[in-house]
């Protein structure tokens, strides 16, 4: 019997992406729920030398980086597939993942979420409006481009959920409950798309901690 252990901090959209993929595959796993500062400790640094989350262990095989983990799971557990069979659709999926990792998360989502949710509500820090203002132009570009790429399709690669949908929905759930996120997603095709994604059993089963939901 395959033993899967996922290490991560509950509430992280990257951890949630991996958990959603596992739920979509119907794969049983154990979550090692880490404390907010535990990812910088020696034990976790032996799993992930860059001190990030998540990391996964499958029967002695260790892997880190969200995209690599989900792609591995998609090959190891092929049904239902999360990667399109069509070359153009695969390219679109990879393009959306690239936008998330290169632009959206580091330059838009992370600074807004930290200043609106994590810093003031969880760490007791005052909100600094300057990083939010600095992030908003990139956030607007990302939302506009992702809305354009989605178009009138149910999902980014057509009529079936892909890795891109999972990763983006995990990023947008709490973010769109902030004033900035609510403004950015309003009246776009991303709004009904996100509703569809969050209604999936895999997302319902991987809700972020209520403290984070309340903070948002």
Low-confidence stretches: none
Global mean pLDDT = 94
Q: Which outline best applies?
A: globular
Number of domains: 2
What share of residues is helical?
55-70%
Distance from first to last alpha carbon: 39 Å
The strand line-up of the biggest sheet is 2-1-3-4
Roughly what fraction of the amino acids lie in strands?
5-15%
Q: Specify the CATH class of the largest domain.
A: Mainly Alpha
CATH architecture of the largest domain: Up-down Bundle
Instruction: Please count the helical segments.
Output: 10
Using the coordinates shown, work out and report the CATH topology of the largest domain.
Answer: Glutathione S-transferase Yfyf (Class Pi), Chain A, domain 2
Q: What is the ordering of alpha helices and beta strands?
A: EHEHEEHHHHHHHH
DSSP strand count: 4
Q: Would you tell me the structural class of the helices and strands?
A: alpha+beta
Based on CA atoms alone, the radius of gyration comes out at: 17 Å
Largest β-sheet summary:
4 strands, mixed
Task: Explain what the structure shows.
This protein folds into two domains: 4-76, Glutaredoxin, CATH 3.40.30; 87-205, Up-down Bundle (Glutathione S-transferase Yfyf (Class Pi), Chain A, domain 2). It is globular. It contains ten helices and four strands. Helix content is 59%, strand content 8%. It has 216 residues and is of the alpha+beta class. The chain has a four-stranded mixed β-sheet, covered by helices on one side.
């Amino acid at each position: 019997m395959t033993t899967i252990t996922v290490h991560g901090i509950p509430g992280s959209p990257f951890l949630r992406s991996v958990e959603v993929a596992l739920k979509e595959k119907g794969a049983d796993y154990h979550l090692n729920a880490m404390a907010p500062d535990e990812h910088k400790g020696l034990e976790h640094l032996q799993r992930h030398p860059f001190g990030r989350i998540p990391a996964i262990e499958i029967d002695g095989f260790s892997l880190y980086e969200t995209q690599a983990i989900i792609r591995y799971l998609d090959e190891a557990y092929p049904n239902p597939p999360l990667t399109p069979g069509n070359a153009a659709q695969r390219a679109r999926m990879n393009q959306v993942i690239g936008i998330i990792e290169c632009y959206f998360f580091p330059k838009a989502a992370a600074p807004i979420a930290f200043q609106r949710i994590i810093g003031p509500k969880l760490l007791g820090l005052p909100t600094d409006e300057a990083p939010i203002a600095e992030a908003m132009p990139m956030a607007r570009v990302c939302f506009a481009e992702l809305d354009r790429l989605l178009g009138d399709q149910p999902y980014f690669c057509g009529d079936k959920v892909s890795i891109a949908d999972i990763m983006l929905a995990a990023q947008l759930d709490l973010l769109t409950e902030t004033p900035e996120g609510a403004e950015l997603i309003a009246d776009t095709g991303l709004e009904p798309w996100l509703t569809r994604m969050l209604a999936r059993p895999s997302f319902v089963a991987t809700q972020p901690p209520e403290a984070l939901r309340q903070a948002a």
